What does this fold into?
Amino acid sequence: SWPWPRGRHGQLIDLLSEAGAKVILVDMFFDLPSTPEEDAALTAAIKRSGRVLLTGEIISEQVGTASIGEPGSGEDGGVFRAEAQHTRKPIDEFLEPSKGYGISLLPDDSDGVVRRVKLAWELPGEEREDVYVTGLVAAALAQGTTPEKLYQRWQPSCMPEHPWMDGDDLLIDYRRPLPEGFTYYSYAAVLDGEVPPEAFRGKVVLVGMRSGLEPDLKGHPMGLSVPTAEGSASPEESLLLEKMAGVETLAHITDMLMGGRPPRPAGSRRFLSLAKPKGPRRLPACYRATGSCRL
It folds into this structure.
């Protein structure tokens, strides 16, 4: 039953490390202790490996409200909420021997599709902390650099010819076709020795739930289709949505940041040509063909 004992995750980390994995990104939250024995087993495996990256998230909390304008003053009235952000980190027992942690925060657009990823957050406090999305930290480790340096490379000032970034929100390049774009192995098959070690040698390995439960499942542009049956709603109102696990989205982000090829937004004409096909059609095929459609 889930969650599995943490000692089992330790066994997997040992196997991947012995196989020569370059980075092991564990897309699971370890922010609370379990049993002392299981936690000790996972801690020891992380320490032996020296290449494990863990996962955290950003938590926003309302800390107060304030009104704008005085009644009867003629000024526009209103209320705004002040929010404070902090991180949900792995417990220190796991974090200290690891290669750090990244944020697995993948907000979707109003239609439920994840098109963008925020690369970094600057959290205020007594000790200012910069935190980065998990895919960027994994890509930096794989390339032998720091998250700070890799983040700077992806700033608009460094790539002015690519209008793909809005602040820290980067368009995700889903250029690898699904499901064959990445190689998947069953967790149990790896533990049972059914996967040859060379499958992981020199690779960035992401460990997570591929067929998970909500809310880990995310909509993606390659999972959009437009029903065009007579009498149906307009295509813009009737997009069908397939979903992928969050760890798969992280794989696309990591692959993009390692490859250094940002996507380019498509113009409105291209969007309209995709949104109004003559017959039943899958939008992903167009997305794969151009490699740059922003749907």
About this structure: Residues 117 and 170 are 5 Å apart (CA to CA).
